[in-house]
Amino acid sequence: MNIVYNVMVFLHIIGAAMIVGIWIGQMKKPTVHPRQFDGAVLQLITGVVMMGLIPALDMNANYIKLGIKLVIALVVGVLAFIGSRKYKKGEPVSKGLAHSVGGLALLNVAIATLWQ
After folding, report:
1. Taking Cα atoms as reference points, which of 98, 78, 111, 104 lies closest to residue 23?
2. What is the reported pTM?
3. Dist. CA 110–CA 89, nearest whole Å
4. Rounded distance, CA 22 to CA 3, Å?
């Protein structure tokens, strides 16, 4: 079970890198790329799987922190979905939407690493 959990952590970090990396790479011309939505979905799936594995592995968890992270991840997912649909249709993606996706994903990384 520890191996499954560690693989989920690895994939979770990849998802965050997809969102934040593309956001930083597109700073001069902010947009929401469809791969950011893929990263958001990957983060949601792996995060939920990891939350499900916590009791099975007898790990202590701060469920308030995890709940806040889940809400932020859902918001990132919805915003990334909206932005990626606009991107695919060739419609302009507002700077606010693009920065919200990247900034909220970065906030989630900060909560994960700094909140003990």
Report:
1. 98
2. 0.93
3. 32
4. 29
